[in-house]
Amino acid sequence: MKNNRWLLDHRRDVESQFGEDGIIEKIFEVIQPKNKWCVEFGAWDGKHYSNTYNLIQNHGWSGVLIEGDPARCAEIKQTHAGKPVHAVNAFVKDNLDELLPAEVPTDFDFLSIDIDGNDYHVWRTLVAHKPRVVIIEFNSMIPAAVDFVQKNDANTTHGNSILAMVRLAKEKGYELVCINQENAFFVERSLFPLFEIADNSIDAIKHFHEPMYIYQLYDGTIRVSGAQHLMYYGIEFDLNSRIIQPLPRFVRRMHIPWKKNAWYHTLLLRFFRRINRPRKRGPNPWDWKRTY
Questions:
Q1: Does CATH place domain 6-205 in 3.40.50.150?
Q2: pLDDT (tens digit per residue) in 22-32
């Protein structure tokens, strides 16, 4: 078997952002194109950070490029003038299938989704077509162990976790073959053995910086580790020096859980439980320890 992340060795950019062009080329060197049709949802102008530009311009592919902005959609037509490309100005409402021209094969070769938010829901709506290879953006700032899906709203830009994307992919019959900084690459399950990847779990394949983690210490102190910056805004911060602690330092230094509680310990805990109580009561925080 090869190194689990061997596809990353083939990264190169023609117009892509993080080496996707080279990875895509290598994937289709392994499985060979079947019909050379590609679909890109969130196509911008057809060139800027495009995952399909190289296929269309340099490898003779046909494409359907979907973009919600009318001005950018007009630029797609200029970018690919004379090429077999359908520029579609639309947003997904009910399903992605209805936006694809009839000439697109149901098993078209390649789908790229990158819309900074509703990616999960757009792929979920694709039912009548089953592309052989899918590349989809995920929010790399969400920890890999968290299954997070943003609400189905085109105006919301939260993104979705890699775990949620892998779950959806498996439900649709795909296997993970590569992860770069912001995109996950999937192939149809029947094609997966061709890649000779022994372990395609997220931990074995992921290639992105550790996101932010919040954890608690025995004395009730809340700490933060990992990336402490707003990536897309260029703002750095140190939450460990600013974070609002549920318990003030003098209470944390009293080590109340490990002492025989005096009457004032009980009053203090009642007070801080009340002021920190969420609007909606959750489960007992100790339940997981008792039932694990």
A1: yes
A2: 999 999 999 99
